[in-house]
Amino acid sequence: MQQRVLDVMIRWCGAIAAAISPGTALAAMDTALLPRNLSPWNMFVNADVVVQAVMVGLAFASLVTWTIWLAKTIEIHRKTATAKRRLGLLESDTVLAKAEQETRGGNDAVAQIIQSAAREASLSGGHFDDGLKERVALRLERVEAAMSRQIARGTGVLATIGATAPFVGLFGTVWGIMNSFIGISEAKTTNLAVVAPGIAEALLATALGLVAAIPAVVIYNHLTRTIAAHRALLGDASALVLLLISREGDRGTFRLARAAE
After folding, report:
1. Most CB contacts within 10 A, which of 2, 44, 97, 233?
2. What is the largest CA-CA distance in the chain?
3. Can you give the residue range of the structural domain that contains 58?
C-alpha cells in the first residue's frame, strides 16, 4: 500500500514538473526519440538515395585510388630495376651491335631505345656522320616520349579524384541538409530527433569525400616523383647510346660493328 502511494506521488511530481518546465520535458522527449544507433553503416542505409549514390561513388573512387597505387608501384619498381640493369650494359665496354643483340626481344624502355638506335644505324647503311647522330637523337626522343606516356598512364585518374572528390562529397552534404530542412518543415517541429540524423548523414558524405581525395593527392604526388626519376633513367640511357655511337665513330669501328651484326 505504501509503495503504491509512493508511485502515485512520483507520477504527480513528474506531471507538475512538466507543467512548470515544459522545455525540460520536450528535451527529454527529443532524447528518447533519437535513434539509438548512428553508426556509419546505419546512416548510409537510412540516407536519401542521392546521398547513398554519392557515398557509393566516393567509396568506388577510393578503391580505384588504392588499386592504381598498388599497380603503378609494382610496375615502376619492375621497370626501374630493368632500366638500371640495361644501363649497366651500356656503361660497360661494348658496341651498339652487341648491345642490340643482348636486348633483342626486350619490351622495356631501354631495350626499345637501343633497338631504335640500331635500327636507324642499319637504315643508314652503317655509315657514321653527323646526320646519323641527329637522326638517332630524334628517334631516341620519340621513344622516350612514348615510354614516358606509357608509364604515366593512370595517374591522371588520381588527379581527377583528388580534385573532384571533395566537391562530390559537398554535393551530398548539401543535398542531405536540404532534406533535413524539408523534414523539419513537414513535421512542423524543431525536435533534435528530426534534425540530427539527416545532418549526420550529410556530414558523412563530406567525410567520405575527404577520405577519397586526400590519399589520391598524396599518391599522385608520390607517383609523379617516382615517374620523374624513371624518366631521368631513360634520359641517361639515351645519352649513353649517343655516347656509344660517337665513341665507335671516333674509333673508326662503327662500320665494323654494324657488319659484325
Report:
1. 97
2. 123
3. 40-260
